[in-house]
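Entry 14. Structure prediction run on the chain below.
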Amino acid sequence: MAERGWYPDPGGRPGHYRFWDGSAWAEETTTTPGTGAGSTGSSSRGTRGDSDEGEERLSAWQRAKGPLTILLAVAVGLALILFGLQRLGMIGGKQPAPANPTEFCPRPAEGNWSTDPHPDDGRVHGGRLSYPRLQRPWGPPVGDFRVPFGRDVASQSITIETDYRPGQNWVASILVGELVSGDGFVSPEGGMDIVARCIVGAFYGDAPVDRKDVSRKAIRVDGHEAYALEMYLSFRIEGLKATGEHAIIVIVATGKNTNSLYYASIPNNAEEYLPTARALVGQLTVGP
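Output returned:
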């Protein structure tokens, strides 16, 4: 049993101390231990006095107060944990969540968005994947830094809506790039779901998106294992005429431990470009 004296407040108040008289805690706390009645051992509120009845009554309360404080702290902690689990939808049924969460998306280390040198051969290269360069009205190939956990990304686009928000355009786009190794992509099919979810989160911000998978299947790209997903995404974004997009994702196993990505997004008010996006899947090649 601890000796009589001042100890840090068992109730957890920072900078506060409470007197222990050998069998019970004092009712009051202080920020200046070592002063006052408690330190002298004289009879006072919260210390052992001359009245056995008072001592017995105070001792019973103080003995209960410490455990009750601990139980209260534990209860508050459990309540916070349960609230967090409910917010994540892990208990208590489906709970509201961010429209397009991205916190589960792996992130590349700083600098992993860099690009590699590629041949000028009339094709657009990203990672070890390439497609025939598209002519006007498609713009020239440019680096694209929006792809979650992607690097060496090149894209072509057509502006469909200009300044739907100040300084922001809505485009049809096609891109290729490398999926950074070490992100848990065991196979193209195994990595498809997380890639699709992260692309929605990265490209559509907080706008609620309704996703409908049109087709998904294993394919071969230039002799390499691959997996293809086409989905239709519906949304309502203030200032934007488009209310949906066709999205095509192809993940190709381009090396022993590497995968590359083909991605196309075609707004529903520019569907004349959808056949091109679909046809390019059959024209993808894997390079060194």
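Confidence is low (pLDDT under 50) at residues 36-58, 90-102.
Filed with the rest of this week's runs.
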